[in-house]
Amino acid sequence: MSPTLVFDAGALIAIERRAPRMQALVQQARARNVSFIIPTAVVAQVVRTGGRQANLRRFLADPALRFDELSYPTALRIGALLGESGTADVVDAAVVACARSMNRCPVATSDPGDLAKLDAELPLIVI
To answer: Residue 48 maps to which CATH number?
Structure first.
């Protein structure tokens, strides 16, 4: 199995904005055959209608991307994680639950503080 990188909402926003640090991260990851996985809750948080997100839409259309759907078992894990951490952000918890399910793979994030509240040992790549 190839290495995996989870994207949070901040990572997708950085892709849309063509942030140089995020572009470099994606390019380097692709060169190393790293696969990308995005929780569908993150997509719901970031994607809007209209034509102003063309960069993001192109990225999300890549057939190599994988998406972690919010299934009932995943929802239970997210709820337990929120209860354990005393936090309430379902999308952040979905990101952490996804990374945990992928052998604690790294998360590309612009919000390390909130993710660290959910799992202080999760590897984070701050963008």
So the answer is: 3.40.50.1010
Cα separation, 123 vs 110, whole angstroms: 13
Domain with 53 in it: 4-126
In sequence order, what E strands does the chain have? 4-7, 35-39, 66-68, 107-109, 124-126
Q: Which two tokens stand for residue 105?
A: 């793979």
The one-letter code for the residue type at 87 is T
Segment 50-96, tens digit of pLDDT: 778 989 999 999 999 999 999 999 999 999 999 999 999 999 999 99
| Of 66, 73, 15, nearest in space to 39 by CA | 66
Q: How many domains does the chain have?
A: 1
Q: What is the pTM of this model?
A: 0.94
Rounded to 5 degrees, what angle do the CA atoms 110, 60, 62 make? 125
